[in-house]
Task: structure prediction
Amino acid sequence: MGKIHDLGDSWSDIVEKRLYGKDLAISEEDAMQALSIIEDHFPDHIDDVIKDYSTRNIPSLIDQGIAVMHCQDLRGFENVFNRLKRGERPALSELVVATYFKRNGYTPILEPECENKKLDLLINHKGTDIFIEVVSPEKSDANNTTLSLMERLSKELLEGFPDAIIGILLLKQIKEDPHSRSKCNSSDFCWSFVAQAFSGPVVNT
Result:
Protein backbone atom coordinates (compact mmCIF):
# COMPACT_ATOMS: atom_id res chain seq x y z
CA MET A 1 0.00 0.00 0.00
CA GLY A 2 1.11 3.57 -0.69
CA LYS A 3 3.43 5.40 1.68
CA ILE A 4 4.39 9.07 1.89
CA HIS A 5 7.99 8.25 0.99
CA ASP A 6 6.69 6.83 -2.30
CA LEU A 7 5.75 10.41 -3.22
CA GLY A 8 9.04 11.94 -2.05
CA ASP A 9 11.57 12.01 0.78
CA SER A 10 10.22 15.30 2.18
CA TRP A 11 7.57 17.92 1.41
CA SER A 12 10.08 19.97 -0.60
CA ASP A 13 10.96 16.82 -2.53
CA ILE A 14 7.26 16.15 -3.23
CA VAL A 15 6.81 19.74 -4.43
CA GLU A 16 9.84 19.43 -6.68
CA LYS A 17 9.05 16.00 -8.14
CA ARG A 18 5.26 15.89 -8.11
CA LEU A 19 4.27 19.54 -8.45
CA TYR A 20 7.29 20.66 -10.49
CA GLY A 21 8.26 23.35 -8.01
CA LYS A 22 4.78 24.87 -7.73
CA ASP A 23 4.25 24.95 -3.97
CA LEU A 24 0.74 24.92 -2.50
CA ALA A 25 -0.60 27.60 -0.18
CA ILE A 26 -0.09 25.43 2.89
CA SER A 27 2.60 25.02 5.53
CA GLU A 28 4.94 22.04 5.33
CA GLU A 29 3.70 20.86 8.74
CA ASP A 30 0.04 20.85 7.67
CA ALA A 31 0.87 19.25 4.32
CA MET A 32 2.79 16.38 5.88
CA GLN A 33 0.15 15.87 8.56
CA ALA A 34 -2.53 15.70 5.88
CA LEU A 35 -0.50 13.17 3.89
CA SER A 36 0.09 11.16 7.06
CA ILE A 37 -3.69 10.84 7.49
CA ILE A 38 -3.99 9.68 3.88
CA GLU A 39 -1.20 7.15 4.43
CA ASP A 40 -2.91 5.76 7.56
CA HIS A 41 -6.46 5.57 6.23
CA PHE A 42 -6.38 5.84 2.41
CA PRO A 43 -3.08 4.31 1.23
CA ASP A 44 -4.75 3.21 -2.01
CA HIS A 45 -5.19 6.90 -2.89
CA ILE A 46 -1.41 7.31 -2.81
CA ASP A 47 -1.16 4.25 -5.06
CA ASP A 48 -3.53 5.97 -7.52
CA VAL A 49 -1.32 9.08 -7.63
CA ILE A 50 1.79 6.99 -8.25
CA LYS A 51 -0.01 4.94 -10.91
CA ASP A 52 -1.04 7.83 -13.14
CA TYR A 53 1.52 10.40 -11.88
CA SER A 54 -1.07 13.17 -12.06
CA THR A 55 -0.20 16.54 -10.48
CA ARG A 56 -3.87 17.30 -9.87
CA ASN A 57 -4.11 14.45 -7.35
CA ILE A 58 -1.57 15.84 -4.88
CA PRO A 59 -3.79 18.84 -3.99
CA SER A 60 -6.75 16.44 -3.75
CA LEU A 61 -4.86 14.28 -1.25
CA ILE A 62 -3.94 17.35 0.78
CA ASP A 63 -7.54 18.66 0.79
CA GLN A 64 -8.86 15.30 1.93
CA GLY A 65 -6.26 14.96 4.69
CA ILE A 66 -6.89 18.53 5.90
CA ALA A 67 -10.65 17.94 6.03
CA VAL A 68 -10.23 14.79 8.10
CA MET A 69 -7.68 16.48 10.34
CA HIS A 70 -9.99 19.40 11.16
CA CYS A 71 -13.18 17.36 11.57
CA GLN A 72 -12.04 14.28 13.47
CA ASP A 73 -13.05 15.76 16.84
CA LEU A 74 -16.53 16.84 15.67
CA ARG A 75 -19.71 15.13 16.79
CA GLY A 76 -20.94 12.72 14.12
CA PHE A 77 -17.52 12.43 12.47
CA GLU A 78 -17.18 8.66 12.70
CA ASN A 79 -20.13 7.84 10.47
CA VAL A 80 -19.14 10.41 7.82
CA PHE A 81 -15.56 9.13 7.96
CA ASN A 82 -16.76 5.56 7.40
CA ARG A 83 -18.75 6.72 4.40
CA LEU A 84 -15.63 8.43 3.08
CA LYS A 85 -13.64 5.22 3.46
CA ARG A 86 -16.32 3.40 1.47
CA GLY A 87 -15.66 5.81 -1.37
CA GLU A 88 -18.74 8.03 -1.03
CA ARG A 89 -17.70 11.36 -2.59
CA PRO A 90 -20.42 13.45 -0.89
CA ALA A 91 -18.88 12.55 2.49
CA LEU A 92 -15.71 14.44 1.57
CA SER A 93 -17.74 17.46 0.44
CA GLU A 94 -19.49 17.51 3.81
CA LEU A 95 -16.15 17.42 5.65
CA VAL A 96 -14.76 20.21 3.46
CA VAL A 97 -17.76 22.43 4.25
CA ALA A 98 -17.51 21.55 7.95
CA THR A 99 -13.81 22.48 7.85
CA TYR A 100 -14.74 25.90 6.44
CA PHE A 101 -17.16 26.58 9.29
CA LYS A 102 -14.74 25.28 11.91
CA ARG A 103 -11.99 27.55 10.63
CA ASN A 104 -14.41 30.45 10.98
CA GLY A 105 -15.13 29.83 14.64
CA TYR A 106 -18.10 27.45 14.52
CA THR A 107 -18.36 23.93 15.92
CA PRO A 108 -20.37 22.01 13.33
CA ILE A 109 -22.29 18.84 14.13
CA LEU A 110 -22.16 16.24 11.39
CA GLU A 111 -25.26 14.32 10.33
CA PRO A 112 -27.64 15.99 12.81
CA GLU A 113 -31.24 14.81 13.03
CA CYS A 114 -34.13 17.09 12.14
CA GLU A 115 -37.70 15.82 12.20
CA ASN A 116 -36.52 12.20 12.00
CA LYS A 117 -34.25 12.95 9.04
CA LYS A 118 -30.47 13.06 8.94
CA LEU A 119 -29.09 16.22 7.38
CA ASP A 120 -25.45 17.03 6.61
CA LEU A 121 -24.44 19.77 9.05
CA LEU A 122 -25.69 21.83 11.95
CA ILE A 123 -24.14 25.07 13.19
CA ASN A 124 -25.35 27.51 15.80
CA HIS A 125 -25.16 31.18 14.86
CA LYS A 126 -25.97 33.67 17.61
CA GLY A 127 -28.26 31.19 19.35
CA THR A 128 -30.03 30.02 16.20
CA ASP A 129 -29.59 26.48 14.89
CA ILE A 130 -28.92 26.37 11.16
CA PHE A 131 -29.16 23.07 9.30
CA ILE A 132 -27.11 22.73 6.14
CA GLU A 133 -27.39 20.33 3.22
CA VAL A 134 -24.30 19.96 1.03
CA VAL A 135 -25.08 19.34 -2.64
CA SER A 136 -22.38 17.29 -4.31
CA PRO A 137 -23.49 15.82 -7.64
CA GLU A 138 -21.67 12.74 -8.86
CA LYS A 139 -19.66 13.03 -12.06
CA SER A 140 -21.74 12.14 -15.10
CA ASP A 141 -20.90 9.11 -17.22
CA ALA A 142 -20.04 11.50 -20.07
CA ASN A 143 -17.53 13.38 -17.94
CA ASN A 144 -15.98 10.15 -16.64
CA THR A 145 -15.66 8.87 -20.21
CA THR A 146 -14.03 12.13 -21.31
CA LEU A 147 -11.57 12.11 -18.41
CA SER A 148 -10.65 8.51 -19.18
CA LEU A 149 -10.10 9.44 -22.83
CA MET A 150 -7.91 12.40 -21.81
CA GLU A 151 -5.74 10.16 -19.67
CA ARG A 152 -5.36 7.51 -22.36
CA LEU A 153 -4.57 10.09 -25.07
CA SER A 154 -2.05 11.81 -22.84
CA LYS A 155 -0.15 8.62 -22.08
CA GLU A 156 -0.14 7.41 -25.68
CA LEU A 157 1.03 10.76 -27.03
CA LEU A 158 3.80 11.06 -24.47
CA GLU A 159 5.03 7.57 -25.27
CA GLY A 160 5.09 8.42 -28.97
CA PHE A 161 6.54 11.94 -28.61
CA PRO A 162 8.64 11.92 -25.41
CA ASP A 163 10.21 15.36 -25.96
CA ALA A 164 7.07 17.25 -26.97
CA ILE A 165 4.56 19.55 -25.33
CA ILE A 166 1.23 18.85 -27.01
CA GLY A 167 -2.00 20.83 -26.62
CA ILE A 168 -5.23 18.90 -27.09
CA LEU A 169 -8.77 20.19 -27.68
CA LEU A 170 -11.66 17.75 -27.44
CA LEU A 171 -14.73 18.91 -29.38
CA LYS A 172 -18.33 18.14 -28.49
CA GLN A 173 -18.95 17.42 -32.14
CA ILE A 174 -16.97 17.38 -35.39
CA LYS A 175 -17.80 20.09 -37.93
CA GLU A 176 -18.20 19.44 -41.66
CA ASP A 177 -14.89 21.17 -42.34
CA PRO A 178 -12.54 20.41 -39.41
CA HIS A 179 -9.89 22.73 -40.89
CA SER A 180 -12.11 25.81 -40.76
CA ARG A 181 -11.81 27.52 -37.38
CA SER A 182 -14.60 29.90 -38.44
CA LYS A 183 -17.00 27.02 -37.88
CA CYS A 184 -15.75 26.28 -34.37
CA ASN A 185 -17.29 28.49 -31.71
CA SER A 186 -15.97 28.67 -28.17
CA SER A 187 -19.05 26.77 -26.99
CA ASP A 188 -17.99 23.82 -29.15
CA PHE A 189 -15.04 23.02 -26.94
CA CYS A 190 -15.83 20.55 -24.18
CA TRP A 191 -12.40 19.88 -22.66
CA SER A 192 -8.84 20.97 -23.20
CA PHE A 193 -5.64 19.72 -21.65
CA VAL A 194 -1.91 19.66 -22.17
CA ALA A 195 0.20 16.53 -22.54
CA GLN A 196 3.58 17.63 -21.28
CA ALA A 197 6.83 15.68 -21.47
CA PHE A 198 9.40 15.74 -18.67
CA SER A 199 12.44 13.62 -17.98
CA GLY A 200 10.37 11.32 -15.80
CA PRO A 201 7.09 9.40 -15.68
CA VAL A 202 4.00 10.34 -17.66
CA VAL A 203 2.05 13.43 -16.66
CA ASN A 204 -1.41 14.51 -17.75
CA THR A 205 -3.02 17.78 -16.67
